[in-house]
Structure prediction request, 278 residues.
Amino acid sequence: MGLPICRNLLKGGCELMVYDRLPERVDQAVTAGATGADSVRAVAQRSDLLFSMVYDDQAFEAIVTGPDGVLAGIRPGSLYVDMSTVSPRVSKEMAALLARQGVRYLRAPVSGSVGLAEAAEITVLASGEQSDLQACLPVLQLFSRAQTYEGPGEAARIVKLVVNAMVIGSTVLIGEALALGESAGLSRDRLVDAINASIVGSRHYAARAEALKHRRYGNAGPLNLVAKDMDLALALDGEAYLELPLLRYARSRIGCAIEQGQGDVEVTFLAEPSKRGD
Prediction:
């Protein structure tokens, strides 16, 4: 999702310096008009406004605290915006380290698909200081359709995990609903269109309509990544000991799909219903 965001920023006239652990992705951004860097530190040294989006807690800690990371290069007073899907716990720990160095920190995970990122239609869920959101709002608007303030601290991290849980659970649900309709003789195409035209239609279902109709699944938002997100969401339970049967069932479906070698397939694959006895 990072490359489409970069392209939209460049289209909006931003001066952009980029780093990625994969050199070919840096090359793609440079081709689009960005300046490449050889480390996160180098980007941080040159930026008053710094964005990051990484895979998980471990990667987030590494880019913030590593010898060539954010804290090694960023100047006091700069604004650091992280758009990753990570745990509230690790985000809070990084917030304390950033504050000690006088760095402003906005949690800004995004909701949407790669296709929505390309169309600048993703949603930014922000928390921290509301003034920091306002400060970078003109930039956020270049690559997102909506920017919502969720509250102080780690509120946006929690909202993002709740949203992801809904995406995952609703994908399993539409798969079972389609199977039910097909078993009664209706075509999959007709069912998908009817669902999207109804009260239960959503941007999530609409964005995945063709994949649902034709069972053509790519690798954007793969199940290996979805498993991580679901584990983070379920960990929000803490000591409340919630049952959450639907979400726990969805997590078990993800595990089964990964065991069957589908870990690199997109989340829409969960719309393939399990058979009795599976």
